[in-house]
Amino acid sequence: MNSEVQNLVAAGKLAAADGEKLSKLEPGTFCLHKSWGVGKVAEWDLLGDRIILDFEGKPGHGLKLSFAITSLEILPAEHLLSRRHSDLDGLKALAKGKVTELIELALKSSGSSMSLDDLERLLKPRIVSEAEYKKWWESAKKTLKTARHIVVPSKRTEPLVLRDSGEKPGGVMVQNFLAKRDLKGKLGVLALIQKDLDLFEQAGTELVPVFQDISDTVRKAWKLHLKDSLQLLLARDELIDAIEGASAPMGSMKVADLVCEARPLLAENIGGLPVSQLGRMYRAFPDAFPERVWVPEILNHLTRTGGRAVAEIAVVLDTNGELEVLSEFLKKSVRNRTLSADLLIWICKERKGLAQSVFSIDLGNAILDAVEDDHVQGGPKRTGRLSDQLSDDKTLIHELVVDTDDESLRNFAKRLINSSVLDELTRRSLLARVIKSRPEMEALMNENAESREDNRLIVSWDSLEKKKAELDELANVKIPHNKNEIQIARDEGDLRENGGYKAAREQQAVLNRMKDQLEREISLSRGTDFANVNTDKVGIGTVVDFQDVATGENETYTILGAWDGDLDQNIVSYLSDIAKVLIGMAPGDEADIPTEDGTGRKVKVLAIRAFNPGA
To answer: Transcription elongation factor GreA/GreB C-terminal domain location, by residue (predicted)?
Structure first.
């Protein structure tokens, strides 16, 4: 005890215990006050019952002895706060050039562990200014990656840690993992292990207890914590893949095992999984459900999971040679209007990729149906993304309508015009794109489409049978042959560099598009033998004799069904420009019929007779 302090104790002016504490607060000692911060004892004034301290920003501050004894915490001279008081410029220099040394000093001053908020309070604003701190810390984290003895947390809620120099970092992390009793805690430590994998000398061997613990934990916990259990297994497999030669212990639970056991609950418990883990999970389906049972199982997920899963499922189907199954599933779903907004958007985005065979005007109608249904039901407006897809994707409408038949396009355009869900500006913009891609639609859309009671195509029985034979050839010969070519090309390996595979896939899209077009045309057709036609005026199923007024030459044209045109035999479809001019005319009427050079020529109808008079 200091001799002067001992005199005060002997005189009864100070308790012996307080005398011991006061003796430690001798001049030159650094200390901390909870209100005034760090200070340094400047001098004693024992006769005046006080000591004088120089606090940061408040020098020469006096405290009563009894108050100082109870309110001041003594700091070692090497403490960061002490250094901040005595050598502020030196610490600023460390912040600029020796970040690791500064952080190590802060951690040693705080018991080897501290929160990022505590670090910020120590350094800001005296050592690092308020304005520069955020940028400084981002730079500091990059520097600290090379400092193996300092653990920088991935989350702000976790502590910054100074490791014992004698500890093996990998061993510490393994012990931390095994000590965790909850799945989320284990996931957090596993993320740190994966981040600092280079800290292990022999990761494959050192992490075996972790791999075994994950398997044991998941077996016990998945029924109550399915999502976390699945994520733990997926993260384990990601870690194993990152370690050369590593593998799970014999008998460990596999992702496929959990997928199979949790089958009824799986789709509802995978929301929020990272995309990489979703892909890994779906790649386990063929093992989880062998002998192609996995195909309908994974297709079922298409309509039950969020948009992030769609692309991953499609890739798995494609990789396993089941792309045609996906194509048929999507076509059926488009026709039945059972696709979610996420799937419809994915098809739009993959229209030149995995969804190429499904991309048609039917998709446009399915999108409009989904938008309208959501509006009627007053749902969560998720299909607002579909409206955005239609309006924001500048080439979508063009690609939907450019090769579409007139009738289907007219119906689609009518839906756009009459839509009560799309705002007027959006409708005008979409219709402008339709007309830009198909200029003839400007006239078609001005027609009174409502007056047409029958939109079906009138066709001869012979032409209808030819169309059906063409469809049969596509469906049963050309498409299966193309599928076989795809499989052969796939077996050659590396699809990214496989030109034959790419060409076969492109041909698949063309064939499927032709098949859709034929199916649509046949469904709209009405076969006839052109019996009982009226010969008072030119119509479908009539033979018309007319005279070129300018030359006096007589010609004969037969007007038949939509697919019967044969100019070599002067047979024209009733949908042709010539037929549209002649239909409705009577003998003696004159009209201008179009010519190939666009000038037109005047003709006079001479006679009309039935194409099939014996019917």
So the answer is: 535-609
Q: Is the bond preceding 125 in cis, omega lying within 30 degrees of 0?
A: yes
174: amino acid identity, one letter: V
- Paired with 31 in beta bridges are 39, 74
Edge-to-edge order in the sheet of strand 571-573: 571-573, 554-560, 542-548, 601-610, 590-593
Running DSSP on this structure, what letter comes out for residue 543?
Answer: E
Q: Which two tokens stand for residue 51?
A: 């000591």
- Provide long-range contacts, Cβ within 8 A and 24+ apart, for 184-193: 184/228, 186/213, 186/214, 186/217, 186/232, 187/228, 187/231, 187/232, 187/235, 188/155, 188/158, 190/214, 190/232, 190/235, 190/236, 190/239, 191/154, 191/235, 192/151, 192/154, 193/239
Q: Which two tokens stand for residue 72?
A: 């001041």
Written in H, E and C, the secondary structure of 578-598 is: HHHHHCCCCCCCEEEECCCCC
Residue 466's nearest CA partner among 508, 516, 522 is: 522
- Distance (Å, whole) CA 387 – CA 593: 44
Amino acid symbol at 532 = N
Split the chain (615 residues) into runs of 10 and give each run's mean pLDDT. 83 85 92 92 90 92 91 94 94 94 94 92 93 93 82 83 69 86 91 84 90 95 93 94 91 94 89 86 94 91 75 89 87 83 87 87 88 61 71 91 86 82 84 89 59 67 93 92 85 64 82 83 87 91 94 93 90 91 93 81 93 75
- Three-state DSSP class for residue 562: coil
Tell me the two tokens of residue 276: 């990489």
Three-state secondary-structure class, residue 50: strand
Residues 150 and 105 sit within 8 Å (Cβ to Cβ): no
Q: pTM for the full model?
A: 0.53
Alpha-carbon span 47 to 366, nearest angstrom: 94
